[in-house]
Design brief:
Elements: E1 5-10, E2 13-18, H1 28-43, E3 48-53, H2 76-85, E4 89-94, E5 97-99, H3 101-108, E6 111-114, E7 119-121, H4 135-143, H5 145-154, E8 158-159, H6 160-166, E9 171-172, H7 177-190, H8 209-219, H9 224-238, H10 242-257, H11 260-274, E10 291-295, H12 299-310, E11 314-318, H13 322-341, H14 347-357, E12 358-361, E13 372-375, H15 381-394, E14 400-403, H16 410-415, E15 423-428, E16 437-441, H17 448-460, E17 464-468, H18 476-493, H19 497-507, H20 513-520, H21 522-535, H22 546-552, E18 565-566, E19 575-576, H23 578-591, H24 600-620, H25 627-637, H26 647-654, H27 656-667, H28 678-686, H29 690-696
Parallel strand pairs: 2-3, 3-4, 4-6, 5-7, 6-9, 10-11, 10-13, 11-12, 13-14, 14-15, 16-17
Antiparallel strand pairs: 1-2, 7-8, 15-16, 18-19
Length: about 700
């Protein structure tokens, strides 16, 4: 027997206890132990088998340490078939989570009991695959096709109560999983219950699978794994035998295993876990963090305050006057009302957060004892320096002074204080209580324990925290400015903003760049353009003014009802604003540009080439330490399709050499904008990839 599975006899019952901490992952030793345990129980004359997990969970899923390695026998599909085919009654007792392969093992058992807090699910689609050990064949037989399609295509976790109603579980009982499992098995034996193999149950009734496939593909913005899983469930209904369905499931599983989307999603999975693990912070203790202050109660500041309150922090929000403070409190209460309606907090918690945990203030003296201050005022260096000068005077020694700036120089902000070691950038994304990305911007003199505290705060707020260096726009907005400029150049040359948006949502982005601008507010980009022009633009840079004219007319996007698109009350989304093309055509004529046609494929390629090239510069300059930092920034802050892994993973997949050739071709028409990144050129010359750099820094 494997040490990962402990074998015990209790009367006629063979007990197989998983002991593979921390989550009883279904690694080789566990699979071998389960198979050996079933065989031993059969050879020793047991009448039934109980499978359960010690520690905090049943089998939580596959062993991620085996990802990408050659499979070793017994594989999970064979193990599940072996468990199901046993002539003994096999029962699984679930607690914690039974996810992916864990639920597939449970479904291959003949009966299932769980504690009320248990959760089950088949989240494989999030890794670019589908349940490959019978999950798409067995789940529809116990839960019905519609419920199975919902669980499999969304990958959502289902609580024990719902799983019982669906038929995934046979019983839910409070208690120790071993105890309730043994009692249930004994009851089954005493009542003469039959062995009940899910694979021997009748095939479920079919649905309109073509319609479901199309709907799932559209909802996933082109992600293949959920839609392919629909076809696998279809096999459960239409295959001649259960075994034929299993064979079809395996074929579809292998198709996905060999897909680029699986590569992207696996990269995203591991990178999400690696991004906040920085070698320089190993052993560095963060500073205490019990209370924070937010300066500025607009949309961003109210969102930051909301996120902090929901994380259990006491928050003091500073505004200029009582009226502004009242408005800010109203925004925070509105955010928390949303959490209340969604069941995230109770009415009692809402009352505590708004009346006790939140303090409104109009005097800087109220910030004298907070542990950390986040400034979220207008994006103007003069204004921010005034705020930090005042904070330097009133905040206690050791308090962390953080700026939520999106673009400005954190070193320059820190220099106006007597404690630059305590200053850091914490760039949240709006709405801050919803968006998961946090750029932790490390200035030249920022102390390591301040950096550690920034990451600790991000973890507390359940953010994906990425380390960024100081430059205009840091990681995300610097890259955004470049690929957005590439889009603007294509508009001048003949594409429309609406075609570009359509091409990029077809690529998998949640929104196109012009729709995003309308959502964020066109005045933000306008302010950035004016600042850069005031600082002096290189005469070789192609500039455009049609968007400025939109803003001059008071059209700032969704908040004014008109931008690139026109927005009507009560209607979702917008329709193209006809004035936009008039402005563009007038500028083309003034600049002497003869417009040409662009294909959607050319738009995507040029847009992505600009993104990758700038991202390579960001990594090469050390603004981002690793390519995966860029990928996580774009995934969690900019709507990049997760199934493509991020721009630099996408670049590895499509080929760096071809991308570099494209960039050099584009440079023949605009050598200033299309300057190849030195890092990209070096990687191509060495025959290496961005992922090689990730592995070097792992």
């Amino acid at each position: 027997m494997s040490e990962a599975i402990r074998y015990e006899r209790v009367g006629d019952i063979a007990v197989l206890a998983a002991d593979n901490p921390p989550v009883n992952a279904l690694g080789l030793a566990v699979r071998q132990g389960l198979q050996a345990g079933i065989e031993r129980a059969e050879s020793e004359g047991a009448k039934a088998v109980l499978i359960y997990g010690t520690g905090r969970t049943y089998f939580a899923g596959a062993d991620i340490r085996e990802f990408g390695k050659p499979p070793q026998e017994p594989g999970l599909p064979d193990l599940c078939n072996r468990i199901e085919s046993s002539p003994l009654i096999v029962v699984s007792a679930l607690h914690g989570t039974a996810l992916g392969g864990g639920l597939e093992v449970a479904l291959s058992s003949h009966y299932r009991i769980a504690v009320p807090s248990a959760k089950v699910g088949l989240p494989e689609v999030h890794l670019g695959i589908l349940p490959g050990a019978g999950g798409t064949q067995r789940l529809p037989r116990v839960a019905g096709v519609e419920a199975a399609l919902d669980m499999i295509t969304t990958g959502r976790h289902v609580g024990a109560g719902e799983a019982l109603k669906l038929g995934v579980l046979d019983r839910v009982v409070d208690g120790d999983p071993r105890d309730i499992g043994l009692a249930y098995v004994q009851e089954l034996l005493d009542s003469g219950a039959p062995r009940r193999a899910v694979g021997e149950l009748p095939a479920p009734a079919p649905v309109d699978f073509d319609s479901v496939y199309d709907a799932v593909l559209k909802k996933g913005r082109g992600q293949q794994s959920p839609a392919t899983a629909v076809r696998s469930v279809q096999a459960a209904c239409e295959a001649a035998t259960f075994q034929d369905g299993i064979i079809r499931e395996r074929e579809l599983f292998m198709d996905l295993m060999n897909s680029d989307q699986r590569l992207g999603l696996i990269h995203a999975f591991f990178s999400e876990r690696a991004v906040s693990k920085l070698p320089e912070l190993k052993g560095v203790e963060p500073r205490p963090l019990a209370s924070i202050s937010v300066i500025g109660g607009g949309t961003m500041g109210a969102g930051i305050a909301t996120a902090a309150l929901l994380a259990g922090l006491n928050v003091t929000l500073l505004e200029m006057n009582d009226a502004a403070a009242a408005a800010a409190k109203g925004r925070i209460e509105g955010n928390l009302q949303g959490a209340l309606k969604r069941g995230k907090i109770s009415q009692a918690q809402f009352d505590t957060l708004t009346n006790q945990s939140l303090t409104m203030a109009t005097d800087y003296a109220a910030l004298s004892d907070v542990d950390l201050v986040v400034e979220a005022v207008f994006e103007d260096m003069g204004v921010k320096k005034q705020v930090f000068t005042k904070l330097d005077e009133v905040c206690k020694p050791g308090a962390i002074l953080a700026s939520n700036t999106s673009y400005l120089d954190v070193d320059e902000i820190a220099a106006c204080t007597s404690r630059p070691q305590d200053v850091i950038g914490l760039h949240f994304f709006s709405p801050a209580h919803v968006m998961k990305l946090l750029e932790v911007v490390v200035a030249e003199k920022t102390a390591l324990d301040v950096v550690a505290t920034g990451f600790a705060l991000g973890k507390l707020l359940k953010k994906i925290s990425v380390r960024a260096g100081v430059c205009d726009g840091f990681i995300g907005n610097r890259i955004l400015a470049t690929y957005r400029t590439a889009a603007d150049h294509m508009v001048l040359d003949g594409a429309s903003p609406f075609q570009i948006d359509k091409a990029l949502t077809g690529f998998g982005f949640a929104m196109g760049p012009y729709a995003v601008s309308d959502l964020a507010g066109l005045d933000i980009g306008w302010a950035v353009r004016k600042r850069k022009r005031a600082e002096g633009m290189d005469p070789r840079a192609r500039d455009s003014s049609y968007a400025d004219k939109l803003c001059e007319g008071g059209n700032f996007g969704q908040k004014t009802g008109k931008g690139y698109y026109v927005y009507e009350a009560g209607k979702r989304g917008g329709t193209p604003n006809p004035e936009v093309m008039q402005l563009i055509e007038a500028e083309r004529a003034a600049k002497g540009i003869t417009p040409r046609d662009f294909s959607d494929e050319e738009i995507v390629r040029k847009y992505m080439a600009a993104m990758v090239n700038e991202a390579a510069k960001v990594v090469g300059e050390g603004i981002a330490r690793r390519p995966l930092d860029v990928d996580m920034t774009l995934l969690f802050g900019y709507g990049f399709p997760r199934y493509r892994g991020g721009p630099l993973k996408w670049a590895d997949i499509v080929g760096l050499s071809d991308l570099l050739d494209d960039i050099k071709t584009y440079a023949q028409d605009d050598a200033y904008f299309w300057q190849p990144a030195p890092l990209l050129e070096q990687l191509v010359a060495d025959g290496r990839s961005f992922d090689d750099l990730n592995k070097e820094t792992a």
